[in-house]
Design a protein that fits this description.
Layout: H1 2-24, E1 35-36, H2 42-59, E2 66-69, H3 76-86, E3 90-92, E4 102-112, E5 115-121, E6 125-134, E7 137-140, E8 145-148
Parallel strand pairs: 1-4, 2-3, 2-4
Antiparallel strand pairs: 4-5, 5-6, 6-7, 6-8
Length: 155
């Protein structure tokens, strides 16, 4: 009986690891999947996009890269694109980028404990912040969390 259980544990463990690896690569290496599951107003989308892009500019300076915006949320996507352009980024959305030097950018906005949890993700950096939604838009409800990736993070 013990030998049979041991025999089935290894394939089950390998299957579980393969499924987890597939989840991690859904949106490309190092990127989250772009989606908005929270209900936003146009005002809150604009405030959040402006604040997050301002924080992104501190990590990935405008004028140094072209942003490939991933995701097509009808409210937050255009607000994020407008904020990126206001900060001086070149933005592409549906163009073919084969061979071009671009920085893919993904986002997610999820309801969490009475507010929304917002993440912007590039291959080099991921920014996360909580916001409280209100009548005038949104207010940051937490400090900015920054996760840097790769060898450039050490510099």
């Amino acid at each position: 009986m013990r030998a049979i259980r041991t025999f089935f544990r290894l394939p089950a463990a390998l299957l579980l690891l393969a499924m987890l690896a597939a989840c991690q690569t859904l949106s490309g290496p190092g990127l989250i999947r772009s989606e908005v599951t929270a209900e936003l107003t146009p005002e809150s989308a604009n405030v959040i996009a402006g604040d997050m892009v301002g924080r992104l500019a501190e990590k990935v300076g405008p004028g140094t890269t072209t942003i490939e915006l991933r995701g097509s949320d009808p409210l937050f996507g255009p607000a994020l694109e407008a904020a990126l352009r206001e900060w001086g980024y070149a933005v592409i959305t549906d163009q073919v980028t084969e061979g071009a030097a671009v920085t893919p950018l993904a986002y997610s906005i999820d309801p969490f404990e009475g507010g929304v949890l917002v993440r912007l993700s590039t291959l080099r950096v991921e920014l996360t912040r909580m916001y409280t939604l209100n009548v005038t838009g949104a207010t940051p409800a937490s400090p900015l969390s920054v996760m840097q990736r790769g060898s450039e993070a050490a510099s």
